[in-house]
Task: inverse folding
């Protein structure tokens, strides 16, 4: 057996030992830092979920009133809704079971309200005034 072939396994073992000793402090440091990194990643994930929820809520709050929105959804959108409903002779009845299922288009039909102008008034509430 030539010397090179004889020494090759021994050299590989020595190189592995030296590499392992050199890497030990780095491995220990990584293990010490890793739990913190996991916690930070978890916190970032939670913050991202909260941000997505906030964006969704903001989109829901700024989306226009639509014919398919329920009466109860409209009531909870803006405090000025009550005055507009009152102008159309629609009573404030937050406990009304029909309002949970009745859409604005159905209420408009049922009470003889012109849907387009009613929605225009409601959506005007969402537009900031320059006064």
Result:
């Amino acid at each position: 057996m030539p010397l090179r072939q004889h020494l090759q396994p021994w050299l590989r073992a020595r190189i592995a030992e030296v590499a392992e000793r050199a890497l030990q402090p780095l491995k220990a440091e990584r293990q010490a830092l890793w739990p913190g990194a996991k916690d930070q990643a978890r916190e970032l994930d939670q913050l991202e979920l909260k941000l997505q929820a906030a964006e969704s809520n903001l989109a829901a709050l700024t989306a226009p009133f639509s014919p398919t929105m329920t009466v109860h959804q409209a009531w909870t959108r803006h405090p000025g809704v009550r005055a507009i409903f009152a102008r159309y002779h629609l009573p404030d009845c937050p406990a009304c079971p029909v309002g949970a299922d009745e859409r604005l288009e159905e209420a408009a039909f049922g009470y003889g309200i012109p849907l387009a102008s009613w929605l225009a008034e409601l959506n005007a509430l969402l537009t900031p005034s320059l006064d």
User: Anything to note?
Assistant: The helical segments are 3-62, 71-77, 81-87, 97-101, 104-111, 115-124. Residues 71-124 form one domain. The mean pLDDT is 81.
